[in-house]
């Protein structure tokens, strides 16, 4: 490595050309640098000059609160309970906690570290391995799709918030047009049907299998009044509901107003966004556990069905839920931590956020399943899983049903609850949209913050209209599956192998030691290098091997819908090879082998944003991570894992 610093004439400037030769995995017998000029992307993005000072959080606690507001959101209150319901209740809980320990927590800490260390956004951070830039771009596209349907959910929440001011609550009692198989959600006003009415109910439900079970008024209200849901989408998804269009506009207006000034203002808002939801959640939990039959529902939630624990689909659901709940492998964490001061204690913050996220998911689970147990008690069934359908509607059925049972001023609790959901949704969407804005502005720095924010808000609003049509829940499920779950797992695996083996776990640990002044334990090294990527790879292989066509309410989608879904998945995943080719072509190496080798090595400007720190870092890292020459591949692998 005697020629490492040959072209490194001025380490104080970010535009210093060439690439770092230090790598724990890529072993080269020639330490010279292929070429001396900046690649095309570096020239176009203007990184040959000193950058403007990057914005930082006003206080370290603002970063922590923002991470809580981002990670503790609809993924906990909305997605976690119905994912647990669809996967056997307690049978899902054990895999989820294991996955959290072996996948969620390691990835969360990894992304915090890599974002803070480099002060780069979710796409720019792959300067550590330009050939894998497609991971960052794919994640940016993925999080953009996520933000479009999160806003649609917030629009539905807004509709409920508006209706919460009515007395009585519109979902508290049954409407005649819903049919006779309906029971009131409000207490002491149950429709105790006489025998002849029950006979009419049987006649009413015979022709429509979907209506054969008795439903609460809150469920009928959601399906008939809010969604105007269609039985299928064979003839299209229909036109948007104008009431939800207003809600969608308000949702994106709120996001735009908060992010148009960047991280400074969003940090101040994070205190309210992070703390307020827990107050309301506590009130609802107390109410839920005091309802008759709630204990049966909670027991269903915590008692594992051992047969399902061995079902790989349950583990796959646990992994995807972990992604949604913690927001890992979406780029949000990298983006937020990139605004930290160098040296901020992200190890502590990662432990706090992952622990609090788990507690919140369990809190939401106890609340929901307590309500489901009560509903089963009221309907007269022992099967908790059959009480309500899964999907996005669970939070809009079970929670309103619980609120309707408050005998004293349920409107107050309803207003507060849906305000909480609105805050959670906005908090998560702020992070996702900010991730898209940061990715664009890192590439086009002359694009102003408010311009970029407005552009994304308008495009997302237009796309989000399809989710608030009568067939909108079909499309939401489709995009959630093909555009989020499938892409997240593939790109997450690519991210882990890139950082753990191409960039190198050992180098990452040295980066942490340089930044935080603390040694990295064996648990982190094993997870980053072996356990986490291996588990995710096995689950992905099994999922594709046992793939079955996606269904919504047990109804298969038309062929055109599957075509849209697979097109979305392919577009996200194909970013990997596409940008790998671009990186190889742009590399300044003289020969093809030099171009390939150079494309998988960090830019020399990789490292801390501060020029003096970066110069010190490069001096230390080149000596510490020199691969063990002449000892073979196994020695390099051992060095990468154990140091």
Which tags fit this structure?
single chain; 643 residues; mainly alpha; two-stranded parallel ribbon; globular; disordered N terminus; amino acid:sodium symporter activity
In words, what does this structure look like?
This protein is mainly alpha-helical. It is 64% helix and 1% strand. The strands form two sheets. A two-stranded parallel sheet has the order 1-2. The two termini are 19 Å apart. Mean pLDDT is 81; it is low at 1-51 and 190-210.
Summarize the entry for a quick read.
The chain has 643 residues and is an all-alpha fold.
Please state the CA-atom Rg, rounded to the nearest Å: 26 Å
How many helical elements?
24
Tell me about the largest β-sheet: 2 strands, parallel
Structural class: mainly alpha
Anisotropy-based shape: globular
Topology order in helix (H) and strand (E) letters? HHHHHEHEHHHHHHHHHHHHHEEHHHHH
Q: What gap, in angstroms, lies between the N and C termini?
A: 19 Å
Helix content: 55-70%
Mean pLDDT level: 81
């Amino acid at each position: 490595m005697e020629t490492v610093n040959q072209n490194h004439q001025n380490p104080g400037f970010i535009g210093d050309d060439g690439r770092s030769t230090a790598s724990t995995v890529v072993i080269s017998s020639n330490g010279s640098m292929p070429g001396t000029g900046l690649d095309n992307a570096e020239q176009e993005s203007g990184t040959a000059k000193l950058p403007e000072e990057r914005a930082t959080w006003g206080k370290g606690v603002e970063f922590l609160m923002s991470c809580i507001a981002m990670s503790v959101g609809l993924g906990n209150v909305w997605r976690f309970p119905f994912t647990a319901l669809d996967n056997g209740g307690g049978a899902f809980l054990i895999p989820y906690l294991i996955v959290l320990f072996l996948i969620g927590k390691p990835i969360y800490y990894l992304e915090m570290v890599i974002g803070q260390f480099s002060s780069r956004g979710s796409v720019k951070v792959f300067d550590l391995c330009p050939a894998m830039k497609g991971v960052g771009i794919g994640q940016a596209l993925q999080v953009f799709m996520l933000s479009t349907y999160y806003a649609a959910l917030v629009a539905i929440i807004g509709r409920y918030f508006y209706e919460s001011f009515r007395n009585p609550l519109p979902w508290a009692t049954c409407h005649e047009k819903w049919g006779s198989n309906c029971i009131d959600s409000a207490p002491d006003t149950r429709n105790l049907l006489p025998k002849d009415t029950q006979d009419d109910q049987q006649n009413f439900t015979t022709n429509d299998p979907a209506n054969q079970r008795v439903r609460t008024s809150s469920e009928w209200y959601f399906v008939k009044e809010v969604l105007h849901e269609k039985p299928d989408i064979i003839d299209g998804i229909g036109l948007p509901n104008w009431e939800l269009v207003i809600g969608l506009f308000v949702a994106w207006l709120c996001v735009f107003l908060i992010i148009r000034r960047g991280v400074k203002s969003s940090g101040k808002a994070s205190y309210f966004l992070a703390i307020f939801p827990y107050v309301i959640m506590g009130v609802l939990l107390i109410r839920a556990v005091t309802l008759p039959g709630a204990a049966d529902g909670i027991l269903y939630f915590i008692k594992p069905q051992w047969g399902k624990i061995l079902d790989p689909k349950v583990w796959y659901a646990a992994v995807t839920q972990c992604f949604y709940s913690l927001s890992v492998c979406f780029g949000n964490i990298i983006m937020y931590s990139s605004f930290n001061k160098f040296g901020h204690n992200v190890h502590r913050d990662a432990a706090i956020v992952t622990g609090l996220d788990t507690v919140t998911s369990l809190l939401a689970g106890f609340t929901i399943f307590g309500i489901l147990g009560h509903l089963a008690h009221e309907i007269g069934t022992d099967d908790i899983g059959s009480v309500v359908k899964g999907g996005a509607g669970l939070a809009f059925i079970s929670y309103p049903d619980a609120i309707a049972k408050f005998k004293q001023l349920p409107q107050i609790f309803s207003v507060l609850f849906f305000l909480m959901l609105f805050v959670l949704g906005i908090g998560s969407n702020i992070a996702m949209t900010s991730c898209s804005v940061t990715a664009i502005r890192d590439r086009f720095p002359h694009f102003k913050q408010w311009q970029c924010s407005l552009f994304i808000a308008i495009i997302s609003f237009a796309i989000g209209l399809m989710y608030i049509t009568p067939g909108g829940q079909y499309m939401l499920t489709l995009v959630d599956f093909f555009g989020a779950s499938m892409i997240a797992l593939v790109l997450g695996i690519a991210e882990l192998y890139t950082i753990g083996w191409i960039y190198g776990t050992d180098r990452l640990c040295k980066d942490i030691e340089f930044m935080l002044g603390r040694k990295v334990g064996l648990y982190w090294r094993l997870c980053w290098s072996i356990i986490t990527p291996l588990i995710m790879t096995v689950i992905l292989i099994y999922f594709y091997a046992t793939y079955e066509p996606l269904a919504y309410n047990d109804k298969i989608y038309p062929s055109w819908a599957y075509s849209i879904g697979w097109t979305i998945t392919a577009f996200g995943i194909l970013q990997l090879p596409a940008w790998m080719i671009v990186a190889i072509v742009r590399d300044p190496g003289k020969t093809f082998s030099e171009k390939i080798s150079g494309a998988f090595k960090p830019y020399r400007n990789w490292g801390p944003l501060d020029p003096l720190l970066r110069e010190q870092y490069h001096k230390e890292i080149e000596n510490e991570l020199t691969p063990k020459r002449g000892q073979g591949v196994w020695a390099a692998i051992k060095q990468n894992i154990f140091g």
